[in-house]
Amino acid sequence: MSQAHLNPSLPQALSRLDQLTNWERKPRGEMRVGLEPMLDLMQRLGNPHRSFRAIHVAGTKGKGSISALLEAGLLRAGWRIGRYGSPHVDRVNERVSILGQEVEDDALATAIMRVLDSYEDAKQAATAGEDATWFDVITAAAFVVFRDAGLSWVVVEVGLGGRLDSTNVVFGEVAIVTNIGLEHTEILGSTRAAIAREKVGILKPGATLVTTLAADDAAGQVLQQRADELDCKVLRTNLPDDETIVATNIALVGLVFDHLGRQGESVREGGEKGQPIGAWLLEKAVIDKARLPGRMERFDVSLSPALAKGRQSLPIIMDGAHVPFNIEAVLRDITRSSSVSGECVAIVALASDKDAPGFLDVLSRYAAYAVFTEASGSGRAHPAIELEALGKSMGMNCEAEPDPHRALDRAMVKAAERGGWMLVTGSLYLVGALRSTVLRNAQ
Fold first, then answer.
1. Is the peptide bond before 87 cis (omega within 30 degrees of 0)?
2. Three-state secondary-structure class, residue 192
């Protein structure tokens, strides 16, 4: 075996990994979904997914933010906690968090290589693992990393759906379904009830289900029915329909922490050692620590003298919302706050499988101007020129600029002219494409 294989670099490992089918970056209509390849890999790797206890998080939106809040709270309680999420914005390491820190390059590279070796063994033996995808392998590598780090608990975020997602080999003692909206309908189903059936597929016998969905909601009824079949307890938030995203997330995670405390779980170090886990952990420092890139992330970007017109900076908020109900919540929360003023100029990219008419219908009620662009990272970009035509048909003031960086320049000019603020939205790939540029120019 070569020295490079014994001590691989992360670029080497990712180059090898990228030869596998990556459904995050391809049209998903013919997507292979099933757990057999993942289960084969797990067995070949010594079942790393059984080395830790898990909280499993599904839902249309909010999975990442909920997962980060769970992680931050349990770190505050002194737990050896990890978090697995997707997609990443800047670096693949973002997907694998150990004790609140991104996994080191060497550890991730070694784990990816070990999983790819098991994949090659499965190919030689013609077993189910030969059909493993990019996401199967990165998920398996994360579980190897968590085992090797000796973690006791991991927050595991579902990639897509739930029932057949690669992550669903874990036993989540708590299963969370954040909410249900119409998304990935070509895979998950065309109604909220059908999608709920897929997402509640993470619920296992003996687990507890936690959700924001009411029992009389169409999707909530499906969750309750499945919980009844499995004899699982259901915990629900009780919040106004227009509650803020942050408050909703805090309420949901608070339910989980109170449940863990009732189950006998306690703080493991510090002044409160031995005290039951509870919603009291969600203090301001914990909430602040749980912020993720591209989720309601604000930057104040310096303006050139030509654009300044009496002010020094332009507020830019980046959020990867890509379904109508979520962009509605994001824009509602931003415009309610006093942190920005003036008109909104939006830069928008949407994947071809998203509900563009529904998304733009919401956006048109909040944004004074939109620059439509394309986030090529997904491989499924909706053409900017088509989004412009759709926007104009709905009465929007808008233009198309397929190149994201030129779109950023155009939008900054428009926002500065109007004395307003900017929103980068519709895709985490778009956020990833522009975030480093925005960050470089932030004050």
1. yes
2. helix
In angstroms, the CA 111 to CA 39 distance is 17
Integer angstrom CA distances of residue 280 from 92, 154, 219: 32, 20, 30
Q: Which tokens go with 179?
A: 């909410």
Question: What is the spatial order of strands in the sheet that 313-319 belongs to?
Answer: 297-302, 313-319, 421-425, 344-348, 367-372, 398-400
177 bridge partner residues: 58, 211
Q: What is the pLDDT of residue 184?
A: 53
The 10 Å Cβ neighbour count of residue 389 is: 14
Cα separation, 139 vs 121, in Å, equals 18
**pLDDT number for residue 344:** 95
Q: What is the pLDDT of residue 183?
A: 60
Task: Mention every residue, 6+ apart, whose C-beta is less than 8 A from residue 300.
Answer: 313, 314, 315, 316, 442, 443
- pLDDT tens digits, 144-194: 999 999 999 999 999 988 999 999 999 999 999 999 986 654 555 568 898
Q: Which residue has 């505050």 as its token pair?
A: 76
CB 234 within 8 A of CB 209: yes
Per-residue pLDDT reduced to its tens digit, 18-47 = 988 775 554 544 555 679 999 999 999 999
CA 207 to chain centre: 23
208: tokens are: 């507890």
